[in-house]
Design a protein that fits this description.
It is built from one helix and eleven strands. The protein is mainly beta. It is globular, with a radius of gyration of 14 Å. The relative contact order is 0.29.
């Protein structure tokens, strides 16, 4: 299935590096999900799902031992907040980019999440409309793949 999506402001690359703003040119396994709790929360995923509590974070500091791993905020190194005010992370699928086999500096926090209005570019993630993410969520299973092509 092909869907309209937003990709990284740095384009699509086979040489992904931390902070380049690019989306990896890859076929990435779906690992797990996060969703905002509550009535207007996130999509209902079939994937193993964690709720995004206010202290949920994801380490994006290549020099830290928790690099590209979930962490609890506040955190002593750089980390993304998983519960965002702009609600882009109301539904998040963790993609297996540099997660199962980590290497420092090859990119972190590559997610499938809700797109900004007008499909504004991401920091390297893949983003869909909330409607498309809601539609897909119950069908997504661990091990399925999301493929990014040029």
């Amino acid at each position: 299935m092909r869907l309209r999506c937003a990709l990284g402001k740095g384009g699509v690359t086979s040489g992904k590096r931390e902070g380049d703003g690019a989306t990896p040119l890859a076929s990435m396994r779906l690992l797990s999900a996060y969703r905002r709790p509550g009535g207007r929360g996130g999509p209902r995923f079939a994937l193993p799902t964690l709720l995004t509590h206010p202290d949920a974070g994801w380490c994006d500091a290549p020099g830290h031992g928790a690099y590209n791993r979930p962490v609890r905020l506040p955190f002593p190194a750089s980390a993304e907040r998983m519960r965002r005010e702009d609600r882009l992370y109301d539904g998040v699928v963790v993609l297996d980019w540099n997660v199962t086999r980590r290497a420092r500096g090859l990119g972190s926090a590559i997610f499938l999440h809700v797109a900004r209005p007008g499909f504004a570019p991401t920091e390297g993630c893949v983003a869909l409309t909330r409607r498309d993410l809601d539609r897909l969520a119950p069908h997504l299973r661990r091990g399925m793949r999301l493929t990014v092509r040029r």
